[in-house]
What we know:
heterodimer, A: mainly alpha, B: mainly alpha, 9 helices, 2% strand
Amino acid sequence: MTALILAIVIGAAFGAVLDRVGATNPGYIIRMLNLSNLHLMKTILLAIGTGAVLMFGGLLTGVVDVGHLSVKSAYVGVFVGGMLLGVGFAVAGFCPGTGLTAAATGRKDAVFFVVGGLLGAGAYMGTYASVKSTGILDDILGGKTTIGVIAGTKYPALLESVPGEVAGIVLGIVFIAIAAVLPMRLRGR
Amino acid sequence: MVLSWKTGGVLLGAVFFAAVLLVKPIGVSTQFVIFDGIVWDLIDQDVVVKSETAKSGYASPNAYLDKSGGSYAKNVAHPLNYSFVFVLAMMAGAAISAVMRGGVAPDERQMPEVWRANFGDESWKRYMAAFLAGFVVLYGSRLAGGCTSGHMMSGMMQTAVSGFIFAAGAFAAGIPVAMLLFKKEG
Lengths: 189, 186
């Protein structure tokens, strides 16, 4: 029951913030990707940086339970899948989360995106076995690898002599700095 | 009016942090699979079955639903779980936020201004493109094992190498495609 209450509270907060930063408006996503308005890029970089500093700070101070972390595997399909997402992201101006939230705000094009998405996810369910047989789902770079060694986890580290918490805070600060120095546009007027 | 990147970025970062502090990192695209599984299971009762040998207690003849000890199969059988309710609540939160800011204008509901400036205002073209893009985006997300939320935001926040690989792929394809398609700003 607690889990469902948390799902409702955190989910609703996430959806509302996505809407307020402009992420439910495909115009902002398209103009981020054609580099004519980097508002969302700056927002996302700052968000990732803020999240990283808080989370790794929380790990160092014991506020965050390290068991809550969930690192995904690296494999060639991550890059290929990322490229496929990138193409559709550029054409539509939606990703899975912003497509659903945009549809919820009344955007009709987002409803078409979501229906297409349900079919695309279904197509992956249908082709998973043959995709797997190609080997592009096999782990690379150690699989669930992080930059440094995060205490209390078994995640392999890219840099084995660097504490993962320090790497996380440094990376967070770098993200925040990039968000700050990135201009509002790189193209056009 | 959208929030400034400073306010919006800090708020969004606070939500990512709250998620990992209280439960686990945010992710969305898996729930498209769970929804498909629920629909499929309504049509064909044999798609998700109880299994004493599976780690999750559920199994499926579909290799994808059956993977990782049938964990997706279990979520199809029990959709009232954290991740699925999270996505429903996310939609409700966005809907309430949109109503409170006065809603989305009728013209804008069909397509964003930048699309209209480049491809005209025939809505069927936009709807067809959005449908096809949705197919490609979700196929790609499932192939990658996550989307913008799970890989890019939650992944890079945790310094996951997979998150950086995903972001590199997404922008390497997304930026040139957007620059080619959307030359006029709108």
